[in-house]
Specification:
It is a single chain. The chain contains 7 helices and no strands. Helix content is 64%, strand content 0%. The chain has 168 residues and is an all-alpha fold. α1 packs parallel to α4. It folds into 2 domains: 68 residues; 70 residues, no CATH class. The protein is elongated. It starts with 8 loop residues before the first helix and ends in a 29-residue tail after the last helix.
């Protein structure tokens, strides 16, 4: 049995469905509206006194406020202006995504070059206090996954030169 201030998983799903419906229909999201539509919650205080339910309600109220702000912005603008703005935003998103891909690829290439020179351990030591940054880089796939080791000095390859030219 759950504590009185916890949401049972089935109630949580039912409440989410009710909140999604209210959001989609653009009806005011209130504890009373949810209680009216919920099959097992009879009073608004059952929502407001339960911390998880209250947080869920507040989350959806915030989403509805944001949705209404955006809808009001669009309503004040002409259809052509809104379409142009949307197209501009799509272009900006595409540019930002390509920039992120470029930065990720260049960062990965830089790390591989440092690793080939035997300096990855120095790089890792430098970034030790920045663990969150390293974790984010790993999440983005910007860190090399293979172990890189230094080449032994005797395997050095000399450049190939063509035939010697005659000097006059």
């Amino acid at each position: 049995m759950t504590k009185s201030n916890e949401i049972a998983p089935s109630n949580d799903n039912e409440m989410r469905q009710i909140l999604e419906t209210l959001l989609a229909d653009d009806e005011d999201i209130t504890a009373r509206a949810v209680a009216r539509l919920h099959p097992s919650i009879n009073a608004a205080s059952s929502i407001t006194r339960s911390e998880p339910r209250s947080k869920l309600l507040a989350e959806y109220q915030q989403r509805q406020a944001e949705y209404r702000r955006w809808r009001a912005r669009v309503a004040r603008r002409s259809g052509a202006d809104t379409a142009t703005s949307l197209a501009d935003k799509n272009i900006q998103i595409a540019e930002l995504e390509s920039t992120v891909e470029l930065l990720t690829a260049s960062h990965l290439a830089m790390l591989r070059a440092v690793g080939e020179l035997g300096g990855f351990s120095k790089w890792a030591k430098f970034y030790e206090p920045y663990r969150e940054a390293r974790d984010k880089l790993a999440e983005l796939g910007a860190l090399p996954e293979a172990t890189v080791s230094a080449m032994p000095p005797e395997s050095r390859v000399e450049p190939v030169r063509g035939p010697a030219k005659k000097r006059r």
